[in-house]
């Protein structure tokens, strides 16, 4: 129909000398039709029964709470479990180690549950409830007298751990502002990722290691003990090949 009307107006414009209101109408009618991308397919996404983040207890159900040392090795190095998506499509991945206490869990739960659509989007935890006791002595108390009493509980997190997962009939642009707001309030560096971006990050690390043209890698220098370097290296440097400095990941280290 549009093609027929455009041809009619073109003939009228030619007979009228190629100027006038008919010429303007001809330009409007012959404009191209816009093309839009196809909508995403959510046929393979199954929504669970409980869509919102569940409440996390402040104190675990221990028969008898036992005191522990700091044991900072629980936040060093890469995460060996829960470092990939299980059911969600988007989430927050830790880029460094640290501890999450009950206040952080409540902040994430309230922020996400209030700002997501509970009919089309679901959220689930990727970390366990706080179970590591942290002791503290009273203000102004003298040194000595044994270990202090348990003050609160925390959850240790390593680099690469998935903190929260989101999914459902929703796109990344809809949940990114909510997750970014949560990332800014976490006690360690973190990043908002999707399934595709997380897979791309892991693929980039593998390609960086395979395509490395520098023969003097950290592993080769340590294995040959050049200049007696093992004297100044810790067991964690030998275990993780110098890719981690304390609880932080060194980017670009091969």
Summarize the model shown.
The protein has 254 residues and is α+β, with helices and mostly antiparallel strands.
Give the SSE layout.
Layout: H1 2-15, H2 21-29, E1 90-94, E2 98-101, H3 102-115, E3 121-125, E4 132-136, E5 149-157, E6 162-168, H4 172-183, E7 190-194, H5 195-210, H6 218-223, H7 235-240, E8 244-245, E9 248-249
Antiparallel strand pairs: 1-6, 1-7, 2-5, 3-6, 4-5, 8-9
Keywords: Ribonucleoprotein, Ribosomal protein
Protein name: Large ribosomal subunit protein uL16m
Pfam families: Ribosomal_L16
Largest sheet: 4 strands, antiparallel
Q: What sort of overall outline do the alpha carbons produce when their principal axes are compared?
A: flat
What helical percentage do the residues reach? Answer: 25-40%
Reading side by side through the largest sheet, how are the strands ordered?
3-6-1-7
Succession of helices and strands: HHEEHEEEEHEHHHEE
Tell me what portion of residues adopts beta-strand conformation. 15-25%
Q: Could you tell me the mean pLDDT?
A: 86
Class by alpha and beta content: alpha+beta
Parts with pLDDT < 50 across at least 5 consecutive residues: none
Distance between the amino and carboxyl termini: 63 Å
Radius of gyration based on Cα positions: 29 Å
| Tally of contiguous helical segments | 7
| Number of E strands | 9
């Amino acid at each position: 129909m549009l093609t027929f009307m455009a041809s009619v107006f073109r003939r009228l414009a030619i007979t009228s000398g190629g100027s006038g209101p008919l010429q303007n109408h001809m330009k409007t009618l012959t404009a191209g039709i816009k093309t839009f991308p196809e909508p995403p397919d959510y046929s393979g996404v199954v929504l669970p029964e409980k869509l919102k983040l569940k409440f996390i207890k402040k104190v675990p159900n221990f028969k008898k709470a036992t005191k522990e040392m700091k044991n900072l090795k629980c936040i060093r190095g890469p995460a060996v479990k829960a470092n990939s998506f299980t059911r969600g499509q988007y989430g927050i991945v830790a880029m460094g180690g640290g501890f999450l206490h009950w206040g952080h869990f409540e902040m994430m739960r309230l922020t996400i549950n209030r700002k997501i659509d509970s009919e089309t989007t679901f959220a689930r935890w990727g970390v366990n409830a706080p179970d590591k006791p942290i002791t503290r002595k009273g203000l102004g108390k003298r040194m000595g007298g044994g270990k202090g009493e348990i003050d609160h509980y925390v959850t240790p997190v390593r680099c690469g751990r998935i903190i929260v997962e989101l999914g459902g009939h929703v796109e990344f642009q809809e949940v990114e502002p909510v997750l970014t707001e949560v990332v800014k309030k976490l006690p360690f560096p973190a990043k908002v990722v999707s399934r595709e971006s997380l897979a791309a990050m892991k693929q980039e690390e593998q390609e960086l290691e395979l395509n490395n043209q520098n023969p003097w890698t950290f592993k080769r220098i340590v294995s040959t003990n050049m200049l007696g370097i093992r004297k100044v290296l810790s067991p964690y440097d030998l275990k993780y090949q110098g890719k981690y400095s304390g609880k932080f990941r060194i980017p670009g280290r091969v």
